[in-house]
Design a protein that fits this description.
Blueprint: H1 15-32, E1 39-43, E2 55-59, H2 70-76, E3 81-84, H3 87-95, E4 97-101, E5 108-112, E6 117-119, E7 140-146, H4 154-165, E8 171-177
Length: about 180
């Protein structure tokens, strides 16, 4: 379990939650005994990846831009494999490069990822669209879907919307969040 984004997770005290808690306890005891895993699958943002097993896989959906940070390339180099959910993520990770200089030798090089990246899309259920008869007062509506967290900046999305459209009753904002 991670506190990433302060997103809650399974909260019911049911069979699934008990099973998850048992696995967490087994993992803690295993590590406390000084044992080492054969393989790790680390599902998080790349700057949190570590070499904690002989074979390490980093899984991230963290690429929402046109370039990854140098620290992410550095972390990619300590992983044996990377998995991302889209061709876009793989392309951005593989096409980001920086000019770098070794301070000891003054030799220049291109600093880029060379760890194999596979694309494994998220699975998604197929739903028949429901007809939700929404009746908005405004003629035009912006729609935003986002986690309510500092990284997604929903507070400023709403603030800036109000600043821009406060005197226009024909424009609305619909927010879907968790």
């Amino acid at each position: 379990p991670t506190g990433w984004g302060k997103t809650s997770w399974v909260f019911e005290n049911n069979v699934e939650r008990q099973w998850i808690d048992d696995l967490i306890n087994k993992t803690s005891k295993f590590l406390a005994a000084g044992k080492r895993f054969d393989m790790s699958l680390q599902v998080t943002i790349p700057n949190e990846w570590e070499r904690i097993a002989p074979f390490n896989i980093g899984y991230t959906a963290g690429i929402e831009t046109t370039k990854v940070a140098p620290a992410w390339i550095e972390k990619a180099k300590i992983m044996d494999k990377i998995i991302v959910p889209s061709k876009h993520s793989r392309s951005i990770y593989n096409n980001t490069a920086y000019n770098a200089t070794y301070t000891e030798t003054n030799e220049t090089t291109i600093f880029k990822n060379d760890t194999e990246i596979s694309v494994v899309p998220y699975s998604a259920r197929k739903y028949k669209p429901a007809n939700i008869d929404l009746d908005f007062d405004s003629e035009f509506n912006f729609f935003t879907v986002s986690q309510w967290s500092p990284r997604k900046n929903i507070e400023n999305t709403i603030k800036w919307f109000i600043e821009e459209f406060y005197d226009n009753p024909n424009v609305g904002l619909v927010v879907k969040t968790n």
